[in-house]
Amino acid sequence: MGPKRKSQEEKGETSSKSPSKQRKASGGEKGGSSSRSQNTDLHHGFESYPPSKVYRLIEPGPVLMVTTGSLADATHNVMTIGFHMVMQHESPPLIGICLGPWDASFAALKRQRECVLAVPAVEMAGVVVDIGNCSADDEVDGNDGGGEATTNKWQRFGLEAVPAARVKAPLVGGNDVIANIECVVEDTKMVSKYSMWVLKPVKAWINPNKKPGEGGRMFHHRGDGTFVVDGEIVDLKDRMVKWQEYQD
Description:
Elements: H1 8-15, H2 19-26, H3 35-38, H4 55-58, E1 64-68, E2 77-81, E3 84-88, E4 94-98, H5 105-112, E5 114-120, H6 125-132, H7 136-139, H8 148-156, E6 160-162, E7 171-173, E8 177-187, H9 191-194, E9 196-206, E10 219-221, E11 227-229
Antiparallel strand pairs: 1-2, 1-5, 3-4, 4-9, 5-8, 6-7, 8-9, 10-11
């Protein structure tokens, strides 16, 4: 769900042994000693963890769909992302997303400087993962992010493209979409080095039947092909005395 890049460190970690051999080496097979008993690299009760995989620990924000292009001229595209973050609450609100030139949507976002972030519910998890496994470039060789290839992706996955209010890219319609956030590009200073786009929301929509915590459950990528789903809500509003202006 994140950038299709691997550091040399991670490549070295994953290429030397197959997963089964790694499990055997660590004693993870039945009948062997536990990895905990064999691990002598404990530091005050903590095991060492590869820095190249820390994204698996902090990535789990909700999986999103990003739409770009224009609904009016049928160049609208949709993709899946898992790397994003809130950067600023207000004045203006800002969201950062990681979207690089390896994605077909990159050219459209660079050209039009606007997009929609759609928040899918867990009922869409399979479709959203399938969207993340394909690209408009896969469908038509030499595609530049527009035309038939992009609209075919919507048809292929049965997605409903709905006109937005403030941007040319469409909202993602349907009962299993929790929300849509219309955005314009606010800052591109980090794009060339980190593929990080700073977006400013200009209009947002929420599904009244799928509000988070009220029937709408987001799903979160753990960075390894597994996901967790929203569950129990812990209400500590009365203890967050310094942040009451952000509470309803």
